[in-house]
Each structure stands twice: as C-alpha cells, then as structure tokens.
Amino acid sequence: MFNRIAPVYDFLNGILSLGIDRSWRKKAIAELAEVPAGEEVLDVATGTAVLAIQAYKKYPTLKFRGMDLSEGMLELGRKRLQKLNLTEKIELDLGDSENLPYDTGRFSAVMAAFGVRNFEDLDKGLAEMYRVTKPGGKIIVLEFSKPKSFPFKHLFQLYFKYLLPNFGKLVSKDPRAYQYLYESVQQFPDYERFLERLSQRGFVRCAHRSLTLGICCIYTGIKP
C-alpha cells in the first residue's frame, strides 16, 4: 500500500494536516537537543526521509540513518537526498522495524514519526527500538492521537473518518490507503496507554506532550 501511494504521500500529509505536520516534527526534533555531537540517530519507518532531513538541518553535527520497509518510499527519499546534496549526510536502509538490522546499543536516539502505529506487532517493534538504543539514550515517537475535548473531538472524528479518506482516495487513487489511516489511529493505544507500553518494554521517565488539541502526541522515554 505504501509503495502505491508513495508519490503523493508527503503532498497529501501536508494538505490534510493544513501544513501543521511540519511544526509537529519540529517540536519532536527539539527532543534531540541533548544528544552529543557526532552521535548516531535512527529514524525508524522513515518513509521518504522527511523527519531525518528536517532533523539534520536542525542538528548537522549528528549522524542520521533512516530505515523503512517500503522500497517505494525509500526511493523517493533517496531522490530527495540527492536533490539536497545530503546523500553523504543521511543514509537510508531497507528493513523491518520489528527486526532492526543494527547492533544492540548502537544509537543515542531512536525516533519515529507517524510510523509506529503501522507496526504489525507494536510491542516487538518497541522492544527492537529499545534494543538498538544506547543506555542513557532516548526514544522519540510522534504519532496521531484522538482528541478528547468537546466539540473538537467530534468535529475531528467527522473529518478523519469521512472527509480525509475521500480526499485521499481521490488524489492517491488508492481506495484503501486513507481509510486505513483512520482505522489505524482508532486502534492505536494513545496517551497513557502508550506510555505504559513504553514502560513495559523497559524505558523509564516516559512522558507525552499533546499537540494541536490532541491531534497528535510526542512520546519520549529513556533507556536506563
């Protein structure tokens, strides 16, 4: 599915979020401020490398590596890196988030934007993110959540359930892709439930910050 919608994926995300997704990523990237220069950061489910590129521009002294299961997404990411002359600054790998092809304790930070909810086995994916993080390193997850406050909760439900899938289907020519987006957000264990999953995998000092009235959250945790 992601291979099919890859050419319009970033365009649609920008349109459907009214451009707010970039500011969400900016806030998530700020969590890298304490990572020492020269250390490696892994972007899991990197897609077209949007998060990795934005993070590198903010912290050019860090080393970024992105990994994704979709070759179609990665191909677009490589073209983007070439256009920006960043092919030697950010490396992209094809791989499975639930079986990361990296040594234990390699990365000082592991981040993911809008990809964790796509894990077939969430706990296995989080356990792998924990494994490849260095002791003292940080996990940073930016993910959609369900707004709680009335009436925004109900307005957003209508938008997300009906308007977004129909517009996405029209532009992407994929009748399933943006219906899947709605369903995956409904099933994702957001807020305190996700913090509990992080804690169960071994992370400590787990916290979350709600953005834009609860449309998405930044989750963080530390590997002891």
Going by CATH, the architecture would be 3-Layer(aba) Sandwich
CATH fold annotation: Rossmann fold
> Which bin fits the share of residues in helices?
40-55%
On the 0 to 100 scale, the average pLDDT is 90
Helices and strands, in order, run as HHEHEHEEHEHHHEE
What is the tally of beta strands? 7
Number of helices: 8
Please indicate the count of domains: 1
Structural class: alpha/beta
| Low-pLDDT sequence parts | none
N- to C-terminal distance: 37 Å
Strand residue content: 15-25%
Highest CATH level, the class: Alpha Beta
Radius of gyration: 17 Å
Looking at this structure, what is the CATH superfamily? Vaccinia Virus protein VP39
Q: The biggest beta sheet, please?
A: 7 strands, mixed
Shape: globular
| Major sheet: arrangement of strands | 3-2-1-4-5-7-6
Description of the structure:
The protein has 224 residues and is of the alpha/beta class. It has one domain: 3-Layer(aba) Sandwich (Rossmann fold). A seven-stranded mixed β-sheet has the order 3-2-1-4-5-7-6, sandwiched between helices. Strand 1, helix 3 and strand 2 form a beta-alpha-beta unit. It starts with a helix and ends with a strand. The mean pLDDT is 90.
Give a concise summary.
With 224 residues, this protein is of the alpha/beta class. The chain has helices spanning 2-16, 20-29, 50-58, 71-83, 122-132, 152-172, 177-187, 192-201; strands at 40-44, 63-68, 90-94, 107-113, 133-144, 204-211, 216-222.
